[in-house]
Amino acid sequence: MRKAIALILFLIISAVATANTSSAAIVIDGRFKVSGRVIDESTLQPLPYAIVKVSNLDLWATTDANGTFAIENIPQGPTSIEVRTLGYVTRTVQFNINRNTDLKNIRLKEENLSIPGVEVTARKKSTIGTTTYSIDRNTLDHSQALSLNDIMALLPGGQTVNSTLTDDSRMALRSASGERGNAAFGTAIEVDGMRLNNNASMSETQSASTRNISTSNIESIEVIAGIPGVEYGDISNGVVKVNTRRGHTPWIMEASMNPYTRQVALSKGMALAHNAGTLNFSLEHARSFTDIASPHTAYSRNIMSATYNKVFRMKGSSLNLTTSLTGNIGGYNSEADPDAFRDTYQRQRDNQLRANLQLDWLCNSKRSGVFNVALQAAFSTADRRSESYTNTSSSSTQAYLHTMTNGYAIAKDYADGMGTGDIILGPTGYWYVRSFNDQKPLTMQLKLKGEWTRRILGAVNKLTVGTELNSTRNNGQGTYYDDMRLAPTWRPYDYSLLPTMHSLAMYIEERLTIGRLMLVGGLRDDITMISGSDYGTAASLSPRLNARYNIIKGKNASLTLHAGYGKSVKLPSFQVLYPADTYTDRLVFTPGSTADGKAYYAYYTDVKRALYNKNLKWQHANQVEAGLDATVGKARLSVSAFWSRTYNPYQTLNVYTPFAYNQTSQSALEGCGIAAADRIYDVNPNTGVVSVTSATDGHTVTLPYSTRRTYTANRQYVNGSPVTRYGLEWVAEMPIISNRHTLGLSLRIDGKYYHYRGIDNTLIAGSPNGIGDQAESSDVQPLIGYYVGSNVTSASTASTPTVSNGMLDKGCSLNTTLTARIPRLRLIMTMRLEATLLNYRRNLSDNRTTIALNEAGDVTGTKYTGQTDHYVAVYPEYYSTWDNPSERIPFAEALLAAKDNNPTLYRQLSNLIVRSNTAYYFNPQDVSAYCSANFSVTKEIGKWVSLSFYANNFFNNLASVRNAQTGLNTSLFDSGYVPKFYYGASVRVKL
User: DSSP labels for 919-980?
Assistant: First the structure.
């Protein structure tokens, strides 16, 4: 770490030092102007609003209404410019500049399938120093991506999942499901530079949902799987960047369908009159249902977006203004399903509103270099209210607890105005209950970034300095009911009363390119301001380094190496910062039911606020990556090796506190002398003493009670043990047939090897068989065990004692894709074989007392050292008693001592042992190799119509695989290992 920071400081200081000599150096260099005109290759018509960029210098310009552009102050020497615009193939022009140069007409080809070499796979970007994959519009159309999550199958080693919007799976880069470390929470999603923030969620610790993003309006996607630059914060597992359509386009009408989804979209990018800029708008409706036979329960999205862009040209500078507004109205709804229980339904809103304003100012100074200043202000709000309408019934009244303070209370008949703070008697008979959970996360972002690019004696130096402010809150009401008379046991927790979380970040980054070597070093400081929370203000530093070196750079061969190191910090969610209070309700009096079915139960409520953890640290990941990119002729190879270790993952524990309460048994009523029909019950809120009063003469009898001993649980968020992931990704591509006009045939082999190991060494308190209570007069005390680790992987769930405390996960997947292109027919076909060569997962029990048993019910046995086909027991390391909770007694010794000397304690201690339910629980889950084949085809009919079709697992592979854990064979059908046979088609029309 110290070496990394020292290197960053060295780069920054060297940049400042060279700035003092840069002016003299720049004067020596020649500075020239490049101009030209961008036109359509076929029609020779000018292309306005095309972007012309000088590589490595961050110099750019846009063409005017006549397609012309001019860029000044370009240093003498080899120069490369990139010309791109929506709907056309990007063109790179390379030349040696030593005077003012007019490139005349730069002709761009319209992007269609008549162009040889059209790509329909994720491509690795080799111009930056970390692993980044780009996915363009052609690839999205060919794969018919319905959700942003579908692109995961396009990455190296990715496996196809049948696309449906009813699946709200979250994106998690370089990780697998069921793992510790909150990988999905650490994967950032950005749309046009605006972060989709899920920190304000009170119900999950996950990345943002992506199914409310319109895939029909996406122009390209960039996946930063390696070490991102320091401008990206609040992450620990990579970044997914979405770029929407901007620029002039024809009318585009799209329709797609698969067995469970229908999607239609309309978009247009228009050039406004009088050179007033461009306006893009998009409309999309998509609907997915869960049952083909009854397509009523469904998720739908209805998205409208508009983007305005205008470039203001001034002498020596340009100002690019972009503003956008996107809204979605949709969600999940089962109300119309005739197959559901009558009049019951579930509804979940997924309404979204996002607004974005960007200003990009370019200043091109002959003396000082190139300045780029970017200002972005973004606003995002969502309405995620869920509604549940269910039926229930009861022949006798049930107590509904709404008490909010410590103390005893007795149930009462409902009266108007009752609700929070009371215990009410529910109705009898049959009725419906309508409940809501209201979440309205709100995020505001403000970003300011400045870039200074200079060319000094053949080297290109780029200094980036930036800051950003993010504010996050939740304006939802939490859970509530429309009729308090019917509200079951529940306590309100109004999210809108919670404070706003603010985070301020500052960063600096230096990029130096000297010939074939590029070095990037940066440092980021995140300051989190949590008003209204015990955590107050916290700061964290994130250094990151990347390097790229081009060893071979020739016309027919090249070899580039890259490596990087970085630390990234993930801020906590509201679920961690503002957890709800914990309510423990104990039944203390059961009088029995009256003639009309009423039972006036009494309860003791213990309220606990989540414990503040002064030692809680923000979760972060340290990452290392190295790789290479090589070309030989037209064959390409890229390999990336990565290692990541997540520190301080967020984890939830229960802290147990001894607790005593007074309980009155039903038998105490036998001698009260008051007839059951004449009784009025009351309970002292402080002592729990129950009294019975005669409704006739007012006579009161105090009932005897006994004291019970138990524990109350209090939630606390802590940092779990670190987890490690590493792996290897590769892509090899080579042409087989390269006829530019008749047939192009290419082969791509991509894959990944992945290894995960996570062991939880946190001390977990609990009791596997539940925490009961004991009479105060009894010699038996309730016990609490303390175990090393748990297999609970989500921060949303409190860790409990479990047989395993970790997992080993290994996998290797290999995809072989054969792509055929017939430019004359405007046709492209892909055949993809997805093979899983290694699917290995094993439960682990490390760093704890684990015993291999001879029989399932045994208490003792031999030390577990990884044996298979054994029942296994886990001892707590310690236990504590009710009357002395601070003393932790070694468990194993106490168990052996109690076996012959204290049978009662021995039984109690035996109940603290966690046992496996099967003898194969710790056997490796090693699944034999399996595969499936997918087919996709896209055909253009002239310039205006495009048809696509795909079939997943089109051979409908029904082979069997063997799971070594149980030794059983399982059919691949409906196994989840491969997708079911699935198909879809789409049509796109341009006007």
Answer: TTTTS-EEEPPEEEEEEEEEEEETTTEEEEEEEETTT----EEEETTTTEEEESTTSSSSPP
DSSP letter string, 263-327: EEEEEEEEEPGGG--EEEEEEEEEEEES-SSSTTSEEEEEEEEEEEEEEEEETTEEEEEEEEEEE
Confidence of residue 757 (pLDDT cuts 50, 70, 90): very high
The alpha-helical segments, DSSP class H, found in 874-918 are 891-901, 903-910
User: Quick one: CA dihedral 902, 908, 912, 915, positive or negative?
Assistant: positive
Encode 230-254: b = buried (16+ Cβ within 10 Å), e = exposed: bbbbbbbbbbbbbbbbbbbbeebbb
Its sign, for the CA torsion 176, 177, 183, 187, is positive
| Order of all β-strands in the sheet with 51-54 | 59-62, 51-54, 77-84, 91-97
CB 493 within 8 A of CB 474: no
Q: In the prediction, which pLDDT does 30 show?
A: 65
The predicted-structure confidence for 726-740, as pLDDT tens digits, reads as follows 999 999 999 999 877
Tally of residues, the chain:
991
- Three-state SS annotation for 593-608: CCCCCCCCCEEEEEEE
Judge whether residue 673 has pLDDT over 50. Answer: yes
Rounded-to-integer distance, Cα 114 and Cα 111, Å? 8
Run of H or E including 24: helix 2-28
Q: How many CB atoms lie within 10 A of CB 721?
A: 21
Torsion angle, CA of 218/220/223/227, rounded to 10 degrees? Answer: -120
Q: For the segment 252-292, what is each residue's pLDDT rounded down to a tens digit?
A: 999 999 999 999 999 999 989 888 889 999 999 999 998 88
In the chain, the largest separation of any two C-alpha atoms, in whole Å, equals 113
- Rounded alpha-carbon distances, angstroms, from residue 604 to 379, 411, 650, 662, 686: 45, 11, 32, 9, 10
Tokens matching residue 900 = 């012959």
pLDDT on residue 14: 45
Phi and psi at residue 547, to the nearest 5°: -140, 145
Alpha helices (H) in 474-578, listed in sequence order: 574-577
Judged by average pLDDT, the poorest of 288-292, 949-953, 987-991 is 288-292
H/E element, 19: helix 2-28
Q: In 3D, which of 358, 348, 350 has the Cα closest to residue 191?
A: 358
Q: What CA–CA distance (Å, rounded) separates 226 from 229?
A: 10
Please tell me the distance from the alpha carbon of residue 331 to that of residue 298, in angstroms, as a whole number: 8
- The predicted-structure confidence for 487-513, as pLDDT tens digits, reads as follows 899 999 999 999 899 999 999 999 999
Reply yes or no on whether the pLDDT at 334 is more than 90: no
Query: How far is it, in rounded angstroms, from Cα 587 to Cα 592?
Result: 13
User: In percent, how much of the chain has pLDDT > 90?
Assistant: 59
Lowest mean pLDDT among 133-147, 248-262, 581-595: 581-595
Question: Which residues, 6 or more positions from 655, have their beta carbon under 8 angstroms from its beta carbon?
Answer: 611, 713, 714, 715, 716, 765
DSSP H/E element including 143: helix 137-143
Contact between 548 and 128 under an 8 Å Cβ cutoff? The reply is yes
Backbone angles phi, psi at 891, to 5 degrees: -80, -50
Range 542-552 average pLDDT:
94
Given pLDDT bands bounded at 50, 70 and 90, which one contains residue 27?
very low
Checking if the pLDDT of 190 tops 70, the result is: yes
pLDDT at 22 over 60: no
Q: Tell me the pLDDT of the chain averaged across its residues.
A: 89
Orientation angle between helical segments 903-910 and 891-901, nearest 10 degrees: 140
Q: At 321, which amino acid appears? A: L
- Is 375:450 a contact under the CB 8 Å cutoff? no
DSSP 572: P
3-state helix, strand, coil in the chain (%, to 5): 10, 55, 40
CB 925 within 8 A of CB 841: yes
* Best CA proximity match to 47, nearest among 3, 80, 91: 91
Q: Which residue has the tokens 């060919």?
A: 142
